[in-house]
Amino acid sequence: MSWLTHTLNGLAYGSLLFLVASGLTITFGLMRTVNLAHGAFYLLGGYLAYDLATRGTDYWLAMAIGVVGAAVAGMIAQRLLLHRIAGQELPQIVLTLGLALVIGDQILAHYGGDPISPPTPPGLTGPVELGALVFPKFRLVLIGIAVGLALLVSALLRYTPIGAKVRAAVDDQEMARTVGIRVPLIFLLVFGLGTGLAAFAGVWGGAFTSLSPDSGFDVLLLALVVVIAGGLGSIPGALVAALAVGLVEEFGRVLFPGWAMFTLYAAVALVLALRPQGLLGKGAVR
Fold first, then answer.
1. Helix/strand/coil (H, E, C) string of 165-221?
2. Residue 84 burial class via C-beta count within 10 angstroms: exposed 0-12, middle 13-18, buried 19 and up
3. What is the three-class DSSP state of 120?
4. Which H or E run contains 262?
């Protein structure tokens, strides 16, 4: 039974990684905008919701404010800064890295450097008993949310008029403009969706692993691994990669405690050696 528990733990952690990576695969994988501030927006949403919830605000309202607040902050950054350097990867790296440091320093100044433990969502505390298996209810729900979010975002991008406009704007901006698609508005909304998803992950991830001002870069690194191993711009690929990373990380810690990180990154390196385009990414057209 312990193996089943470890498997569920790995899937739950992988689900959290997918929540973070889903926003990054949209902004980085689809829009080709290098956003190293993604982990900072994860922290921004998590800390904002934590602050409001501990002051007596209803948990769900605090979560909504945290997510919307981070999404709006992301849209402001995209509109004022990032859209001026579209397609320029090095300036994007420098700018978003600086933005991440500014947000991280502000969080450190306001909340201090000690980790915080945001509350578990109401109604999801305590364990679930499935025969001999006892597992936290919150983590099981997290797995379901990750799968549901993957289906929702995939359907949104593939089957809706909004998704068609996003794909058209990403594939050929000039052609999209000629048919009346407002490309800057599309990119603004997509970037806001990406940072909002990062904030949502921060709210729920904080209840899973706690939050600290320096944890944003750790989350960012793992999200980049998931996005690249899954295939740039592929939501299903990000889900598969995130669950795989979660399982490898969990069993690596159990079986090879001193080699857990090596086990994880060796597996990622092997995947990229065999499939440079990622698990479900599209190969380069020759």
1. HHHHHHHCHHHHHHCCCCHHHHHHHHHHHHHHHHHHHHHHHHHHHCECCCHHHHHHH
2. exposed
3. coil
4. helix 260-274
Interatomic CA distance for residues 250 and 264, integer angstroms: 9
- For residue 229, count other CB atoms closer than 10 A to its CB: 25
**pLDDT bracket for residue 111 (50, 70, 90):** very high
pLDDT tens figures, 12-44: 999 999 999 988 888 887 778 889 999 999 999
For 25, residues 6+ apart whose C-beta sits below 8 A from its C-beta are 226, 227, 230, 232, 233, 234, 235, 237, 238
* Number of residues assigned to the chain: 286
DSSP 258: G
Half-sphere exposure of 176 (CA within 13 A, CB side): 19
Tokens linked to 146? 């990750």
Rounded Cα gap, residues 165 and 162, in angstroms: 5
User: For residue 33, which of 67, 1, 75 has the smallest C-alpha distance?
Assistant: 75
Per-residue pLDDT of 132-188, as tens digits, reads 888 899 999 999 999 999 999 999 988 998 888 888 887 888 888 888 888 889 889
pLDDT for the residue numbered 232: 83
Q: What is the CA radius of gyration of the chain?
A: 19
User: How far apart are alpha carbons 47 and 242 in whole angstroms?
Assistant: 24
Give the CB-side neighbour count of residue 29, counting CA atoms within 13 A.
28
Q: How far apart are CA 33 and CA 79, in angstroms?
A: 13
Structure tokens belonging to residue 236: 């299903």
Helix (H) or strand (E) holding 129: strand 127-130
- The encoded tokens of residue 10 equal 């790995």
Nearby residues of 261 by Cβ (< 8 Å), 6 or more positions away = 252
